[in-house]
Each structure stands twice: as C-alpha cells, then as structure tokens.
C-alpha cells in the first residue's frame, strides 16, 4: 500500500445543525469515543510514519471540547485543518480560542447555497478568519436539484474575493448527486477543486477517514468500515489492507440495488473532507 499522506478524523458525532443528509448522521446528542490525548498520540504516530496532514471534522469539531488542546499540542507536527459549519464561530470566545491554537487552515461549509443568510455568514466568517491571520476557505455542497443556487453562491464567493483556490465544490452523495459536467457548470466552466472520486469511485492510497467511533474507511461515505484494534499507524494500515469501498450511490448510472462495490479500488478516491 502506498504511504498515507492525509487523514481525516471525525472527532465527534455531535452537531447542532443536524443536516438530514449528513454522512455520519450527526446530531445534538451525537457521541464520541476519542479522548484528546488519544487523538494527539495517534496523530503523532501517523506523522512519524509519513502522514503530512490531518483534517479534523465531525459532526462539528468546534463542539468537541478538546479540539483547541489538540491543535495546540500538534502545532508544528504536521498540517492541521478544521472543517466547521461555522455556527460556533459566531461566539467571540470560540474565535479567540481557535485563533490562539493557530490551525493551518479552516474550511467553513455552505450546506444550503439557496439560503442567502448562510452564504453571507460564511463569507463574513472566512473574511474574519483571514483578517485574524488564519488561512481559510469554503466547502460548498452541490446537489443536482440545486445547481442554480450553487452557481449563484460561487458568483457571490467570487465577488467577495474567495476564489477557486479557496473553495472546494463537494457533490452531494447518496442521492441527488450532480455529474462532473454539472459540477463544472456550477464552477462557471472554470477550474475548480473537488473530490477525486468525482470522476471514479474508489480508494486513494494517500487518504483515509477515521470515524468518531474509532472505525476507519477509505472515505467518509463508504459503508465498509473497520474498528481500529489500537490507535496506531500500524493498526490503521492493517485495517485498511483488506478493506474495500462500497459505492455511495446517488447518480443515474447506479445499478438496481443502488450500490456498486470496488473491492480492489482504483487510483482515485476521496482526498477532500466535507463537514
């Protein structure tokens, strides 16, 4: 197996936004099995074995009490990013704590591009973080039924100076999934960042996702997951060695069962993280 370079860790299943389409089925009463010291120990071991970047998501990572301590402890160890819905960034105390922990990047998600207030809030928060010295960007969720609203949101981001290098267009998974040409339409036929599995479902040898329940998978969406026997690089690579990928469905070319299995995977996979 090619050496992992990037790992996503879902710190918690807790999230006050509780979007109905969430791949981790997060909600206000969601749990976690991670203690902060377990996370830092695992990530340090991953970094010692070549992992260069970790992304903290959920659920909502800003609802995980140990996030700031984890960011502090891992400063300088590897690239640390956070994907948030931004709701807790409305609290000045939370913003101050995040800025003090100095993550290398913060992605703020737009889940509903048809909601003008959400788009405005995220633009303001990205600008605020940048003004405070935190590199920031936007994850924009795109569904097939909402292409016009997503395109309008991209135009608003452009007008606000949040260009293609600062945003990731994420296709809805499971249902209502846009095609690659439709994603390009949302981008205005310009270059854009997205998940590599936009073109081909499969596992990436460079990336994996660790769930809030200490299971690992090749991406956040596949149903094929395996419990980690220990929180170490060795246990992670052992679990992934025989793990396949189940197609998450949602496009017109899925089979009658709605599922496609790719046991061996391909050289494509999910290298981006939505939250």
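-> sequence recovered:
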């Amino acid at each position: 197996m090619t050496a992992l370079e990037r790992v996503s860790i879902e710190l918690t299943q807790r999230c006050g936004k509780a979007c109905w389409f969430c791949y981790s089925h997060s909600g206000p009463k969601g749990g976690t099995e991670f203690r902060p010291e377990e996370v830092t120990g695992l990530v340090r071991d991953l970094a010692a074995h070549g992992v260069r970047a970790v992304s903290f998501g959920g659920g909502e990572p800003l609802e995980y009490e140990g996030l700031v301590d984890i960011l502090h402890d891992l400063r300088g160890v590897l690239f640390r990013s956070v994907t948030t819905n931004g709701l807790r960034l409305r609290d000045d105390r939370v913003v101050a704590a995040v800025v003090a922990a100095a993550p290398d990047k913060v992605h703020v998600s737009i889940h509903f591009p048809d909601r003008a207030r959400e788009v405005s809030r995220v633009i303001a928060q990205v600008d605020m973080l940048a003004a405070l010295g935190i590199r920031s960007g936007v994850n924009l969720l795109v569904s097939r039924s909402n292409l016009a609203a997503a395109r309008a949101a991209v135009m608003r981001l452009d007008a606000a100076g949040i260009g293609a290098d600062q945003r990731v267009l994420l296709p809805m998974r499971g249902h209502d999934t846009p095609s690659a040409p439709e994603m390009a339409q949302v981008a205005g036929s310009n270059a854009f960042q997205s998940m590599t599995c936009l073109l081909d479902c499969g596992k990436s040898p460079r990336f994996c996702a660790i769930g809030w329940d200490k299971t690992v998978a090749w991406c956040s969406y596949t149903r094929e997951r395996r419990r980690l026997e220990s929180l170490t690089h060795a246990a992670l690579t052992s679990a992934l060695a025989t793990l396949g990928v189940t197609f998450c469905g949602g496009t017109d070319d899925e089979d009658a069962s709605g599922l496609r299995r790719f046991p061996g995977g391909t050289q494509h996979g999910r290298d981006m993280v939505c939250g």
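The helical segments are 36-48, 67-73, 92-101, 116-131, 147-159, 180-186, 233-241.
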